[in-house]
Amino acid sequence: MGTRTIEWRDGTVVTIDQTRLPQEVAILEMRSWTKVAEAIKTMKIRGAPLLGAAAAFALALVAYNSKAENRLELINELEKAAEILRGTRPTGANLFWAMDRILDKARKFSGDREALAAFVVEEAQKIADEDAEANHLIGKYGAELLRDGDVILTHCNAGALATVEYGTALGVVRSAWEQGKRVMVIATETRPKLQGARLTTYELKRDGIPVTLITDNMVGYVMYKRMVSNVVVGADRIVQDAVINKIGTFTIAVLAKEHNKPFYVAAPKSTFDLNHTSKDVIIEERKPQEVTQIGSQRIAADGIEVLNPAFDITPLEYVTAIICESGILYKEDFDKFKTKHSVG
Length: 344
Ligand code: MRU
Description:
Radius of gyration: 20 Å
Distance between the termini: 43 Å
Bound molecules: 5-S-methyl-1-O-phosphono-5-thio-D-ribulose
Number of strands: 15
Number of helices: 11
Order of helices and strands: EEEHHHHHEHEHEHEEEHEHEEEEEH
Strand content: 15-25%
């Protein structure tokens, strides 16, 4: 792989199987959209912005491999695939946003079937390119908020692995590091799927950025001990009144407020869903075994009830600022942004 987490190479979508990291860098090559759907479902591909690019490339595969006889037939195939892809992971906004963008443009496209197929592939590539570009801008703006010597606490993995390139929350850290600021990261392990322990530490270690791993229940302790300068996390969906991100984010936000520490959310505008509120969001509920087992080892008593929501909801009053490719949005800026960009 180059610097990109996902790439289109002449009818093949190439990415890394994230379930095998950090033990093994296993390259996944997918030539059919159903393989991409399966990789999303099984979390070989994960992270909201990466899911957007992957869904876009899945539609590119539909177009590339299509035997449709005309434009309308191809649109129909794209819509059917999109319907199934929408059912893979319900919470992150980018997957829906990317497919809606392609389908809207495909419906308005006036060329013939061949031209439409080529257009869909191009549009998917554009979505991936724009994500990479957005992350570098997020990094640039976000780095202004970090000082030399800062310790940044992050949750889950909002890094290069969760995006097409560079990362959102980790893009901010990376950018500060590249500017010569000696920042350090505290990464939470992120039960139950351990994206922090497996992916965030792997990425930062690879880049030589100092990182310390803690379990999720140590956040209160490290804040109490004044070991944290600020929190930077990513987002799966940003609605009018809240940020939806990996389960455990809200707990960290409450602790940050209690300790007077800034709580920043770094996300591209493709994660924004400003026509909805937190009440409209479907929080993905995952299987109980992720909680009752560690690997294949059962750790909980048999026959118990388990709750396993993959994401939680952080009301905006806990968020110091949202860092996106347009800049740093403090509360007033975000309010203006909402008025300008929401419908109705
Ligand atoms: O379940 P995951 O691993 O897909 O969840 C990922 C997160 O919650 C990330 O914080 C979020 O997608 C932002 S990634 C730039």
